[in-house]
Amino acid sequence: MVEVSYINPLSNEGREIIRRYGDLNQLEKENEYLIEEVIHTTNQKISNDDLIPKSYKDLAFKRIQWAIEKKNNKNYSQNEFEYLLNDALCKQDTVVYHVLCQAIAIQFNIGSRETRLFIESQGVLVQERLSKLTPLVRNEIIDEILEEIKTDGAIKWNSLKDIIASKKLKLSELLISDGDIILQQNEFMDEYGSKFTDRSPERMYNILVGDSVKELILSRLIMQKTEEYIKKIKEMSARVEMHPSIVELAEELKDFIPSEISKYNQYYEGSGGVYGSVQAGKLNPEAFPPCIENTVNGVTSGGRNDAIVLLLTSFASYARLYPRIFASDETMKVSDLDPDLNITRNEILPLIFDAADNCTPPLFEDQPQEKVNIISKLGFGMHSDIDINHEGETTWYTPMSCEKIKIHLPQLCKPDGSCKGINNPLSCYGRKKFQLDKKK
Ligand code: SF4
Fold first, then answer.
1. What is the DSSP string of 147-216?
2. Model confidence over 76-113: pLDDT tens digits?
3. Range 166-176 average pLDDT
């Protein structure tokens, strides 16, 4: 039988594993059992030694690397990470899950791209692990975990309202009675059994509730519980000193995650990665002024829409295509500088959309229409995509001045030395980039 903590590391059993693990100083120590199990996992690729995690800390980095690759790498290869679906590594995985939650809690904000990456990856892992189990074992373990998660005897539909608001689960997919979600067959039979006279209630249960809804809810609940757990650790870390090994891991993750993600970013200078070689003129994030850096990292307070639609859209497009706008009298269209719109489509829009996704809540989740506003600010009218035939229907919005930003988006303007004597983020970027290029 598969351990409950393999699917729910926050279960009582999972917490017991953590209590017993004890010594966090051992995180970096080579672990023979781990290495042996990874090597002997069915379908695991072992041709390259780098693919094998040797310690709990290695496993923590591999889990994050898997999350990034699974999400971004078009050539993602499951057999490099097959051991993540090996239930014999349940204890190791549970420890690593808790260690990562702690490191992420002290290093990143709750709504940050990094925290969301980890929480989402936990949901994906739950679904993938469940899909590998036999139907009988899967049903048993789902029921056991759902029973444990129920705090007051039932799962209230409103405990899933965040998930429903994010459109990851539809209210219409749930069967609700007095605010409680009906998931178990016995609950269904008690509530509706007598109402079916001409057909089998069991069959109706399978049609109306079914395993897939239960699996989906379970994975969402574990994502939600993970987020609550990270929040709790964050609050606690303000009062209690964290273990030095967790602090060290948190510091390393701060560099590791952006560096792994950047392999798949096609819009930054020097990013390389799957999209090939560096091209002159690509944006250099090191030269971004503070207001732009804050926007790209995700706006968590007010002004989210203006920051993305007005500030970043104009900044990114002019910085990439026409940084000399303020020194020139000529009025340009995007296609004058990017005739086939490839730069706009492959570099500028992904940067803006990623920043929108980094916001809390992610911009397009509750306001998908803002995509149209972004397209319109690039001069392509009120449409959902850029199309040369629509160019000119609206005007290419020019970059906001520092004065305007200070009035409308004061929370993003945190001037540093590079802002001295300038009146527009674009000028700040140009000067910084010039200095950085000179150093190279
Ligand atoms: S001074 Fe201007 S460039 Fe610097 S952070 Fe503020 S708005 Fe941005």
1. HHH-SSSS-BGGGGHHHHHTTSS-GGG--EETTEE--SHHHHHHHHGGG-SSS-HHHHHHHHTHHHHHHH
2. 999 999 999 999 999 999 999 999 999 999 998 777 77
3. 64
Find the 415 Cα to ligand 1 centroid distance in Å: 5
Q: From the CA of 422, how far away is ligand 1's center (Å)?
A: 8
**H or E segment to which residue 181 belongs:** strand 180-181
| Residue 93 CA, ligand 1 centroid: distance in Å | 44
Hey, which of 311, 407, 413, 427 would you mutate to test ligand 1's pocket, going by the most ligand atoms within 8 Å of its Cβ?
Answer: 413
Compute, in angstroms, the gap from residue 306 CA to the centroid of ligand 1: 15
C-alpha span between 257 and 251 (Å, rounded): 11
Chain segment 272-284, per-residue pLDDT in tens:
332 233 233 689 9
Of residues 196, 186, 158, 150, the one with CA closest to residue 174: 158
Distance, in Å, from the CA atom of 249 to the CA atom of 244, rounded to the nearest integer, reads 9
Q: What is the pTM of this model?
A: 0.64
Residue whose Cα lies nearest atom 8 of ligand 1: it is 291
Whole-number mean pLDDT of the chain?
A: 86
pLDDT at 53: 97
Q: Helix (H, G, I), strand (E, B), or coil: what is residue 351?
A: helix
Give ligand 1 pocket residues (Cβ under 6 A): 289-291, 402, 405, 413-415, 419, 425, 428
Residue nearest to atom 7 of ligand 1 (CA): 402
Helix axes 90-107, 12-21, angle to 10 degrees: 80
pLDDT in tens, 214-271: 788 888 889 888 999 999 999 999 899 999 999 999 999 988 987 888 787 666 654 4
Helices of type H across 40-172: 56-72, 90-107, 113-131, 135-149, 161-165
Other CB atoms within a 10 A radius of the CB of residue 207 amount to: 9
Count helices and strands (H / E) in the chain.
Answer: 22, 2
**DSSP 8-class letter at 89:** G
Fill in the amino acid letter for 206: N
User: What residue owns the CA closest to ligand 1's atom 6?
Assistant: 413
Report the separation in Å between the CA atom of 360 and the middle of ligand 1, taken as the mean of its atom positions. Answer: 22
